[in-house]
Design a protein that fits this description.
- This protein is mostly helical and 151 residues long.
- It has one domain.
- α1 runs antiparallel to α3.
- The radius of gyration is 17 Å and the shape is globular.
- The protein is built from 4 helices and 2 strands; from the N terminus they run ααββαα.
- The N and C termini lie far apart (37 Å).
- The N terminus is likely disordered.
């Protein structure tokens, strides 16, 4: 299993889409742009307050990951991140929302499952890392498992 690919998918586990430790944008900050010219897409600011996600992720990496979490959990950014009451902007670095800590725990759990357990199996059937979407299926609360009736 490609460790880098596994880490990105694991992190993309939308472990609660609970966009964890995302990029910090203080009110009045601007997005950096590349030197490619005026038509180039604006880059996202460098992430801050990353406690579970790798600290070497770029703002663009975090943005992609958080969008994956949104889809896996069916929630918007504000579900995990705190909104500044004065500016109405989401404060991605804030730890005020307790759901963000739950998301961090879920990301750690998913990382452990992929890196400590599935990776040890050595079976190609388990080469695809587990993500948040495996359990959550686009819902905040994972649906209750209902086994098929036995014949």
């Amino acid at each position: 299993m490609n460790a880098r690919y596994a880490m990105i998918l694991i992190l993309g586990c939308a472990i609660f889409s609970i966009g964890i430790g995302a990029a910090s944008q203080s009110p009045g900050s601007t997005k950096a742009t590349s030197d490619a010219g005026p038509s180039s897409k604006a880059a996202h600011p460098k992430p801050t307050n990353l406690k579970v996600l790798p600290k070497n992720l770029t703002g663009d990496d975090i943005d992609k990951l958080m969008h994956r979490y949104e889809k896996d959990l069916g929630v918007p950014c504000g579900y995990c991140h705190e909104e500044n009451p004065q500016t109405k902007q989401i404060d991605f670095a804030s730890d005020e929302n307790p759901i963000k800590e739950t998301a961090r725990s879920m990301i750690s759990m998913t990382n452990d499952i992929n890196n400590k357990y599935l990776a040890q199996l050595g079976d190609r059937r388990y080469a695809e890392p587990l993500t948040c979407g495996n359990c959550h299926q686009g819902q905040v609360q994972p649906p209750t498992f209902e086994p098929k009736p036995q014949r």
